[in-house]
Write a structure and sequence with these properties.
The structure holds 2 protein chains of 2 kinds. By secondary structure, chain A is mostly beta strands. Chain A has strands at 3-5, 10-14, 19-21, 24-26, 32-38, 45-49, 60-64, 69-74, 83-90, 103-108. Chain A starts with a strand and ends with a strand. In chain B, strands 2, 4, 5, 6, 9, 10 and 11 form a 7-stranded mixed beta sheet that branches. A 4-stranded antiparallel beta sheet of chain B has the order 1-3-8-7, with no helix packed on it.
Amino acid sequence: AQRVTQPEKLLSVFKGAPVELKCNYSYSGSPELFWYVQYSRQRLQLLLRHISRESIKGFTADLNKGETSFHLKKPFAQEEDSAMYYCAPLHSGGFKTIFGAGTRLFVKA
Amino acid sequence: DADVTQTPRNRITKTGKRIMLECSQTKGHDRMYWYRQDPGLGLRLIYYSFDVKDINKGEISDGYSVSRQAQAKFSLSLESAIPNQTALYFCATSDETGGKDTQYFGPGTRLTVL
């Protein structure tokens, strides 16, 4: 069964500290992976996708096929990074996206 | 992003009532989705539609039905609302070309069933 796990419901870090939001997936085939973010009072929106190998707002995510992980990282957290983050694999068949339960990141001043 | 809109934004209803949530999009996307968001459970897919003639059940379709009236409109109905359907509901669209199925979300509808 397709499954995505975000083990941390809440992650609290100080401003300037590194942050890593964990995501592990269980999928057949080779999924495409996304991170979505929901800031306070804003709608859910795409943060980044692994096929683009991009860095958005200082965040990066590397796909580790051996560990079936797609952790989201940022070397220096900012207060404006406080938000809800969802890891979301898209099955290679393109049928649908499965969202993790989400991790709430809180960056303290 | 006003390209995906949902009405109503908030709704309080009673157990047993029929209710419809509407979603409209101006992005020209073929694919549309309905999710519900519950604390600790993330987003769960209720129904999805890849074009006007294609409707598919998601993870949690029981108690829900949908209608794809046009490419731009995708409605979610609760035939007989119950309290555990209290949640935040999101509509989303995607286009499999170019953006590789990136999803674009509406602002959400907060539904409370008493």
